[in-house]
Amino acid sequence: xxxxxxxxxxxxxxxxxxxxxxxxxxxxxxxxxxxxxxxxxxxxxxxxxxxxxxxxxxxxxxxxxxxxxxxxxxxxxxxxxxxxxxxxxxxxxxxxxxxxxxxxxxxxxxx
Length: 111
Prior knowledge:
Elements: E1 5-6, E2 16-17, H1 24-44, E3 54-56, H2 57-64, H3 68-76, E4 83-85, E5 88-92, H4 93-102
Antiparallel strand pairs: 1-2, 3-5, 4-5
């Protein structure tokens, strides 16, 4: 079956084949509608919760999924910095994040 060229009213448009179902204008309209919908979805999303900078021991234990004894050992052995105010121990979230980043390891692929 031979393809027939169809030239629409607007001569500035590229030629379209007869069996082409979607026009460039259709695609442009779809893109605009799609972007509008995506922007609307992002606008409806609540902002991500902000991580507190200073965390108490209970929060660090939950975050790292470690026991009280493990946290105590990390603190006493100098592996994790802390601040103590009137008997309450606080940990800087950014310090914990740096420690975790520094401890990253990558496995070597088998050769």
